[in-house]
Amino acid sequence: QPRWLPPPETLHLWKEFETPEPAEIAAIQKSFLRHVTKTFARTAFNMDNFASYQGTAYSLRDRLIDKWNITQQHHTREDPKRVYYLSLEFLLGRSLDSCLLSLGVKDIYKKALDELGFRLEDLIGEEVDAALGNGGLGRLAACYMDSLATLDYPAWGYGIRYNYGIFKQLIVDGYQTEFPDYWLNFGNPWEIERLDVSYEVRFRGYVNKVTEEDGTISYVWEGGEKVVAVAYDVPIPGYGTMNTINIRLWSAKPAREFDFAMFNDGNYDKAVEEQKSAENITSVLYPNDNHMVGKILRLKQQYLFVCATLQDAIRRFKKTNRPWSDFPYQVSIQLNDTHPTLGIPELQRILIDEEGLSWDDAWDIVTKTFSFTNHTVLPEALERWAVPLVQDLLPRHMMIIFDINLFFLQKVEKKFPGDRDRLRRMSIIEEGHPQNVRMAFLAIVGSHTVNGVAELHSNLIKNVIFTDFVEYYEGNKFTNVTNGITPRRWLHQCNPALSDFITQKLGSDSWVKDLEQLKKLKEFVDDPAVQKQWMAIKRQNKVRLADYIHSITSIQVSPDSLFDIQVKRIHEYKRQFMNILGVIHRYLRLKKMTPEQKAKEVPRLVVFAGKSAPGYFIAKLVIKLINSVGEVINNDPEIGDVLKVVFIPNYNVSLAEIIIPASDISQHISTAGTEASGTSNMKFVLNGGIILGTVDGANIEIGEEIGEDNIFFFGVKADEVEDIRHLNRYRKIEMDPDLRNVLDAIEKGTFGDPKIFEPLVATLTVGGDYYLISKDFASYIEAQADADEAYKDKVGWAKKSILCTAGMSKFSSDRSINEYAEKIWKIKPCSVPATLP
Ligand code: F58
């Protein structure tokens, strides 16, 4: 269509609407009332908190859109190199509070609403979490969007708009039960539906070989079925800056063409049925954390996602009429794990089949464009897709993957002649029945840079799982970017009391955008007044959590006990099982004490929260055991406040914001070498909580930054694990005697029917104890005892807590993003003016 141009004499009308509104009480109230009455059809006598949340959100959304439009126009004009962050998950949580803070209008909105008779705090609680992710990987993507926006980078996030986010967890009779999270039920003010931005996506069909007159051969992918991906945009404002970037989420809709043949055959309902099946593609988020499922629907999600995303990026690139060779200098694409790896053969396909480039020219562009982040070394989490499945769904891509593999292996053969075993090991296609595509290998071969997410993890990638590739590329492709978290959400927003105190002590709030400033807190570590105030704030946060726990579980907990918290997805490698076994050990010890002895113990509250994958039997038993143990201990009159155990249901981002500021200790106790990084460890320490953890993932770097005196490390090191596992397998290791006692108590029925827990106990007794719980148990218990001792020294503890926060500068996602931008993406900030000339 020809471009529409406004009549010049009407331009001033547009200008007025495109200029951001002033942050004034009257303007805010007017826009709030306009939305409440006109968008939501409410009246002064028909209002509730939810409606006022909606009105507030829509009025903020207007402000976001103003900034978003200016940002996009500025970027179009400047045409900087952009980064595209491709992630099948974005775990954003709530947006109202973070948006108010980023736009710098929280106080004035509070006033404006106050005058109208609404309390902002109540409205914030009305919002449902956007929970389009499983755990760490999805939340990392959300933190990175916040940093990209805040640091003025020209960036886009791309993902899927699932109709159902991660399931809601309810605990029934101690067991996890799952309920669908139909989060769009009440509308979503934070997205903009873009019916005008949509792309066709093909599945199945056949590949036609065409021989041109000059003898060249080309391939055309035809037939099959088509669906359409429609864009939903989620604006992400930078903190205290104009830059407002976009997460574009795709939703599958039926293709515009309707099967009229079928319709005319009288098969109207079948025709409609098929249309519906298109919508299924983006219906549900797969709820597995660190475990791969080989479902065809998941493969469809992955392809729809990369297909639409690349069409969108290419359309934007083509606007400036540059040659294809410029593409990698204008576009950088980051793969958040292997889930979007089909983007590699897809770009290759577009370049050779549709744009007519040669294989080599196309491959050169592809490999200069993509980079890949690995998030796990667990073999069961590494994606492998059965060749027949890929062949059926994406026949042309399967051909291209075979060719990529062929050309790659030819080069390997040239470098290491005659090394057949090496070729077998490095092949993108794993032999077997059926054959499998090793997605990580495809991602490595198709990317210019591969990174791990913490130092130890990046070393394990290089020395254990991808060693052959390191040798082949002579180390040049592999690097580390240690994860980070956004200090905006994970301190400034979730812990306002501590945040205000830090601002007061440092004399400015510039630390919110420059976490290096926190180092200056070290000057106050010996100041008794600061120590006192610091711990008073911690206590306030513990009271807030205690109230929440009471409201949800009816369990009364004392804010004077040591809050010991483990919240994360439930997985054997994360060893929540070891934690609850440790709790039982403590309980048995307390049961042997006199009341006088018990009175000398540090009272402890042990908090668990986290979801298990619905089909993960052993993880679900761990949840049941935690609840059964809690039931007994919490109701034992001899124990009282000395020990309490709580499982908080339905852990999610907004719950994390209440839980994290309240910890004295948090546990990050994965078997060494299994947790790639961990990011909640960073959040707890930033809020002055102390880690009790293994020498694993980012715990190690946190220890280096805050000092080993301020972290309780225990357990074997990553390089010892393999040998111990081997011994375990052949049962050359005696079970730890304390652990034996604990298992005896379970088997005796102390915590209910022991039959229930048999399969769980068996993972230690007959299953080879793959995660080394027995080996680490003694040092775990010892570390717990050290923590108790240290907690008795109130001043010593306050100092540790202050030094924790003060030492966390490195773990800002701003640092991570700057590293990606400089080392990997080669992009520069592009600061957006307040108004366009
Ligand atoms: C997590 N991975 C790592 N995967 O386990 C954690 O150590 C790390 O800190 C974090 O990534 C960020 O780097 C993770 O969360 C998933 O949830 C995948 C979801 C899709 C299926 C496979 C697992």
Automatic annotation (TrEMBL):
Pfam families: Phosphorylase. The keyword Nuclease does not apply. The modification N6-(pyridoxal phosphate)lysine is found at residue 683. Allosteric enzyme that catalyzes the rate-limiting step in glycogen catabolism, the phosphorolytic cleavage of glycogen to produce glucose-1-phosphate, and plays a central role in maintaining cellular and organismal glucose homeostasis. Belongs to the glycogen phosphorylase family. Coiled coil: none annotated. It catalyses: [(1->4)-alpha-D-glucosyl](n) + phosphate = [(1->4)-alpha-D-glucosyl](n-1) + alpha-D-glucose 1-phosphate. GO terms for biological process: glycogen catabolic process. This is Alpha-1,4 glucan phosphorylase. It is an enzyme of class 2 (transferase). InterPro entries: Glycg_phsphrylas (IPR011833), Glyco_trans_35 (IPR000811), Pyridoxal_P_attach_site (IPR035090). The keyword Metal-binding does not apply.
